[in-house]
Amino acid sequence: MLIIPEDRDASQGLLGMLPNELVLMIREAYPASDLVFHARFDQLSEHVPRLYDADTDFWRRLCYSNGIGCLKNEESRMMNWKALALECELHTRICYQPGCGEAKLSENTTWTSNRLRQKEPIVTVRASGQSVKDTRPYSSHDDLNQHIIALRSFACFPPVDNMQVNLFTTTTPSLCVNNVSGATVHDIQDGINIVEQYEYTLSTLDLY
Ligand SMILES: [Zn+2]
Question: What is the interface pTM, i.e. ipTM, of the complex?
Fold first, then answer.
């Protein structure tokens, strides 16, 4: 017979009436890296978030293990990692792009630097002495900004804080990207946009 603790509220549904030990057992039945599960589980009942609060680094680790990081101008310690995880989960409900949504989270958790899934690599990324391919899945900066999972995914795995990027056919890297928390797709895209604007400015000046 299930004894419902006195501090439980029946209006919170079955989960809200279970003792913490049982709620924890349910939570721990799922992998610690399952962002979609933990973000949804956290919102099932008012007392569930308190179970996560005991581990103050849980949400940051969850985001990192799903390949989701800070942008280059953000500080990890200032981030609201839980809000970011919940926002990513929300995005999985509306985005089914192969380079974003739940598919991208799943890829990020299993991806390795020699496991290339994109068909049309556009930039060559050199990290840790090895060449790996990355892509520009979105045609413009504005498009990428609509896709938080693609935007914040690490550009390569394992994440690196410095990337030399070849945008052209020369062997000299034409773009250097730094992010102490791990370079993201956004950082690469941002750098590419800056280079493109620079190239555009030069060619415009050449006309005069
Ligand atoms: Zn998306």
Answer: 0.99
Q: Separation of 108 CA from ligand 1 center, angstroms?
A: 14
Interval between CA 151 and ligand 1 midpoint (Å): 8
Q: What is the DSSP letter of 76?
A: G
Does any domain span residue 178? yes
Question: Within 10 A of 109 (CB to CB), how many other CB atoms are there?
Answer: 15
Ligand 1 mean position, distance from CA 42 (Å): 22
Q: Is 166 helix (H, G, I), strand (E, B) or coil?
A: strand
Rounded to the nearest integer, the mean pLDDT of the chain is 76
pLDDT tens digits, residue range 75-128? 999 999 999 999 999 999 999 987 899 999 998 887 543 343 333 333 344 443
Look at residue 1 and tell me if it is in a domain. Answer: no
> Ligand 1 mean position to 103 CA, how many Å?
10
